[in-house]
């Protein structure tokens, strides 16, 4: 089939506007009449710097990112950020504690303190106080929390709430905020704004994470699969990250929006030797926000071609939506409402997995329950959908969680279901 014959619903990598791809294809052969393709130009060249800076500025404009935030282009994907957030924010936690110890000892006011005393105090602080908070509402935040436990040790990881515990053992509902168990002064409170596999999305910024700002918690959000789909109160977050491949561009770059108060000169990085003495991990240099920020995202070779594609998507979005991301939000809400309404109108055939309170506007997880066998019904649904040019509908299904249809109905335990990305040919072609 031709590109225009297909409506593709796959969760990622997602569809890109055809005109962006056509321009990009030309740039891949000969960029701006330089006689060289974009992927052949050095990331150290002036044109590469310009592409990076323009993409940053366009993202800042589209999302209204305030001046006290830095935008970083990195590599390693969302999974790389599961690790990077831990390394960097544990560093910040230790450095702030070190500064407090110095201050309390009267350093700067003529007093002295030995390195041994600092170390003893810090060890005590780490043992008593260091916590990294995770809200586990789906498989991606679960993975992030597991990575933290792997890197620093499970004793430092606090699960604020686990969506499975209040929903029959399955993800599908964000636990009530009054049941969240937040730590005091955690290195961060982490959550995934849209759980791609489970179809669970936070309806808005959680009240429990207020007050926002320097006196509030350090809030970190994974927005890999819903960035650019609604207005976000950036100032409520210390850090937002997302892989580009779902909602911004092609596979290969990761974007971090970070508050400058978490970077030098506001806060330095403790010496690696100190972190080792505290039994805490020292991260790889390519995951260091300080290093990436200092080098304006060009510490090492970056895929400029992928930054270029993201930049072109942003330019198109800026030209398409007069009220920027608000315009895209209206579209995302309209489309998801249409699909949920169609599914809800036929309860004999479809069952939406997540609870109404936590339904994602981006990934619609549902099961086809028509007839005696869910497997046969879904096979038939997928076959007939493909015949109509509706592709990528088969979701992320974990085999181990599949249970027979009758049992499923009886127990109302619906396994991870079909994820449906609400991006369509019409939407993309309309761009
Ligand atoms: N976070 C979310 C919400 C995702 O949907 C994904 C991937 O699908 C990831 C993280 C992992 O991203 P990556 O494959 O870029 O490591």
What features would you highlight for this structure?
alpha/beta, seven-stranded mixed beta sheet, binds pyridoxal-5'-phosphate, 431 residues, 13 strands, Aspartate Aminotransferase, domain 2, Aspartate Aminotransferase, domain 1, amino-acid biosynthesis, two-stranded parallel sheet, EC 2.6.1.52, pyridoxal phosphate binding, disordered C terminus, 2 domains, pyridoxal phosphate, serine biosynthesis
Please, could you describe this protein's structure?
- Pathway: Amino-acid biosynthesis; L-serine biosynthesis; L-serine from 3-phospho-D-glycerate: step 2/3.
- This is phosphoserine transaminase.
- It catalyses: O-phospho-L-serine + 2-oxoglutarate = 3-phosphooxypyruvate + L-glutamate.
- One of its GO terms (molecular function) is O-phospho-L-serine:2-oxoglutarate aminotransferase activity.
- The longest helix has 28 residues, at 77-104.
- This protein is of the alpha/beta class.
- Strand 6 (194-195) and strand 7 (200-201) form a beta hairpin.
- It has a seven-stranded mixed beta sheet with strand order 2-10-9-8-5-3-4, with helices on both faces. A two-stranded parallel ribbon has the order 1-13. Strands 6-7 form a two-stranded antiparallel sheet.
- It is built from twelve helices and 13 strands.
- It has two domains: 53-309, Type I PLP-dependent aspartate aminotransferase-like (Major domain) (Aspartate Aminotransferase, domain 2, 3-Layer(aba) Sandwich); 325-430, Alpha-Beta Complex (Aspartate Aminotransferase, domain 1), CATH 3.90.1150.
- Helix content is 38%, strand content 12%.
- The radius of gyration is 23 Å and the shape is globular.
- Bound molecules: pyridoxal-5'-phosphate.
């Amino acid at each position: 089939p031709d590109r225009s014959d297909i409506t593709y619903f796959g969760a990622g990598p997602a569809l890109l506007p055809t005109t962006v791809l056509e321009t990009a294809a030309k740039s891949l052969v000969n960029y701006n009449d330089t006689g060289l393709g974009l992927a052949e130009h050095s990331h150290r060249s002036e044109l590469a710097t310009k592409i990076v800076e323009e993409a940053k500025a366009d993202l800042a404009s589209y999302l209204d990112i305030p001046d006290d935030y830095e935008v970083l282009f990195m590599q390693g994907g969302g999974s790389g950020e599961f690790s990077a957030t831990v390394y960097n924010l544990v560093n910040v936690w230790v450095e702030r504690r070190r500064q407090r110890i110095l201050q309390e000892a009267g350093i700067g006011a003529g007093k002295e303190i030995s390195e041994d005393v600092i170390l003893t105090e810090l060890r005590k602080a780490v043992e008593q106080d260091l916590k990294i908070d995770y809200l586990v509402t789906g498989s991606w935040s679960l993975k992030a929390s597991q990575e933290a436990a792997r890197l620093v040790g499970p004793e430092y990881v606090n699960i604020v709430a686990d969506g499975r515990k209040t929903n029959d053992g399955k993800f599908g509902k964000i636990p009530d905020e009054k049941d969240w168990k937040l730590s005091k002064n955690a290195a961060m409170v982490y959550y995934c704004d849209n759980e791609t596999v489970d179809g669970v999305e936070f309806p808005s910024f959680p009240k429990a994470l207020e007050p926002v700002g320097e006196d509030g918690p350090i809030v970190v959000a994974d927005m890999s699969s819903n960035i650019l789909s609604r207005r976000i109160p950036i100032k409520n977050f210390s850090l937002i990250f997302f892989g580009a491949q779902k909602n911004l561009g092609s596979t290969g770059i990761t974007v971090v929006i970070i508050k400058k108060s978490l970077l030098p000169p506001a806060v330095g990085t403790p010496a690696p030797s100190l972190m080792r003495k505290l039994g805490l991990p020292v991260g790889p240099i390519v995951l260091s926000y300080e290093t990436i920020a200092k080098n304006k995202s060009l510490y090492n070779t970056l895929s400029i071609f992928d930054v270029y594609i993201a930049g072109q998507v942003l330019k198109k979005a800026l030209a398409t939506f007069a009220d920027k991301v608000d315009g895209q939000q209206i579209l995302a809400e309209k489309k998801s409402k249409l699909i949920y309404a169609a599914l809800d109108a036929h309860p004999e055939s479809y069952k939406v997995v997540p609870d109404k309170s936590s339904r994602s506007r981006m990934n619609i997880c549902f099961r086809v329950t028509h007839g005696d066998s869910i497997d046969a019904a879904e096979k038939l649904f997928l076959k007939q959908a493909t015949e109509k040019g509706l592709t990528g509908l088969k979701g992320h299904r974990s085999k181990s969680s599949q249970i027979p249809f009758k049992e499923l109905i009886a127990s109302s335990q619906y396994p991870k279901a079909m994820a449906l990305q609400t991006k369509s040919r019409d939407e993309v072609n309309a761009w």
